[in-house]
Specification:
Helix content is 51%, strand content 10%. By secondary structure, the protein is of the alpha/beta class. The protein starts with 17 loop residues before the first helix and ends with a strand. Belongs to the peptidase M67C family.
């Protein structure tokens, strides 16, 4: 066996208390149901393989998986198997053997539970510290954003004030310029008017003496500005600048500016925008709906606690030479157009199950002894279609159902030497439901829509890896 496996990361981790996580493992380990239509010997074999797999996981430090399988073993042989109608027909020696194994498994499962609780307690401590660290980082980030927001508001106010002052200064400058132009024009007009009065006075003095001057002075017209206001007082002589209009009022212009001045952004809006930004450091723990239980009970399934997503299958590695060597062993039967069937067994490496054995033993006890001797797990079966293509017939579907019922990764390999093709299949979820409910024997039709079987996506065919073919035919 290889070294330590990576620590499992199940969906029950981190956020839950240690007691709650242990409870979830126990609940999943208790999900064992007995299909009374399956032969009880399948459950006896399944129990043996549960222990093999649990021992492998335990040796590799994969304690969640080991605990679940040990608990399933206890549940099956202490409680559930008694419901099977053939329970009383089980040889007493087998029952005694399993009772002894149950007594051994109880303390092992209890020790694993204590180790898991210690580990979960440590992980909970780490989780709380991590959450506290994230909360502090988030608080610091929020404070930084608040300070940046306030600074931005101050800069916006200062900018708006500056723009307003610049616009008001521009208006005043323009008004002053226009006022100076008007003043210069008015002063020029007054000078010209004064010049005319002097000229007229000189002419009057020459023509009529004093009286003429007086008459002329009485006939000087008043000067009016463009808006009709008196610019020259009739009571006395005007001097340049003495009757100029007052500087224009800025109030009307400033009111117009106020309507169009740059506005400071609404503070409440900016605060809302700031609080709606996604957290940079915070982590959202996904909620898990545990109310949905799997419709198919696989006795050796680990579910979400096996270090994979719920429903995912562990990889089965199949050496390419397996099919070649099996066809060679089956060649004599193939020439007679007779099918050859073998059992696929293998060993567990992490989450990989490479089939290493193909056999054709009908003696159940001999197969069990061989597996015990070599510490092998049953991974499915392989058989030939000498005259047909590679597919699963109705009989094949029923033959494969118990394998996949016990282990979700179980595969069915079909070799068609005539058509030179090989298929590696598994039942679909729909196929498991249909075949599990079907009680017909022999070849019989099934509705093919939806499909009852499919190609295995969890199988990896590799060019390396050795294969042992044990041909036990008499």
């Amino acid at each position: 066996m290889p070294g330590m496996l990576p620590r499992q990361a199940s969906l029950s981790s981190s956020g839950s208390s240690p007691d709650h996580r242990i409870k979830l493992l126990i609940e999943y380990g208790s999900l064992v149901e007995v299909d009374k239509s399956l032969a009880i010997k399948l459950y006896l074999r399944s129990g043996r393989e549960m222990l093999r797999m649990a021992n492998m996981y335990c040796d590799d430090g994969h304690f969640e998986s080991a605990f679940i399988l040990y608990y399933k073993f206890i549940t099956l042989f202490v409680e559930k198997l008694r419901e099977h109608p053939d329970y009383r027909s089980v040889p007493q020696a087998d029952l005694s053997d399993f009772k002894r194994k149950v007594k051994k498994v109880f303390p092992i499962a209890e020790q694993i539970k204590l180790k898991l609780k210690d580990r979960y307690t440590e992980e909970e401590k780490i989780f709380i510290e991590e959450q506290q660290r994230l909360a502090e980082e988030q608080a610091a980030e929020d404070e930084r954003r608040r300070a940046a927001l306030e600074q931005q508001e101050r800069e916006d106010e200062e900018l708006a004030k500056k723009l307003q002052e610049e616009e008001e200064a521009g208006v005043r400058s323009e008004l002053d310029r226009k006022y100076l132009q008007l003043r210069e024009k008015e002063e020029e007009r007054l000078r010209e008017e004064e010049e005319r009065r002097k000229n007229q006075g000189t002419r009057a003095a020459t023509l009529g003496g004093t009286a003429g001057v007086a008459a002329a002075s009485n006939t000087i017209p008043a000067a009016f500005g463009a808006d009709g206001a008196d610019l020259v007082s009739p009571s006395g002589p005007a001097t340049p600048g003495s009757a100029l209009p007052p500087p224009p009022s800025y109030s009307q212009y400033l009111n117009d500016i106020a309507r169009d001045r740059p506005q400071v952004p609404d503070r409440s809006l900016k605060k809302n925008l700031g609080t709606q930004e996604p957290s940079v450091t915070g982590q959202q723990v996904p909620s898990i709906d545990r109310s949905k239980k799997p419709s198919i009970d696989h006795h050796m399934s680990l579910g979400e606690f096996g270090g994979q997503m719920d429903g995912a299958l562990r990889t089965v590695t199949v050496p390419a030479s397996l099919m070649t060597q099996f066809l060679l062993a089956a060649e004599s039967n193939t020439r007679r157009e007779a099918e050859t069937m073998g059992i696929l067994c293998g060993k567990m490496y992490g989450f990989v199950f490479p089939p290493v054995l193909s056999t054709d033993m009908e003696n159940e006890e001999e197969l069990i002894f061989f597996q015990d001797e070599h510490n092998l797990i049953t991974l499915g079966w392989i058989h030939t279609h000498p005259t047909q293509t590679a597919f699963l017939s109705s009989v094949d579907l029923h033959s494969h159902f118990p394998w996949q019922k016990m282990m979700p990764e179980a595969i069915a390999i079909v070799c068609s030497p005539k058509f030179q093709e090989t298929g590696i299949f598994k039942l679909t979820d729909h196929g498991l439901d249909v075949i599990g409910a079907c009680r017909e024997k022999g070849f019989h039709p099934h509705n093919k829509t939806p499909p009852l079987f499919e190609d295995c996506a969890h199988v990896q065919v590799c060019e390396t890896g050795g294969v042992i073919v044990e041909d036990r035919r008499n």
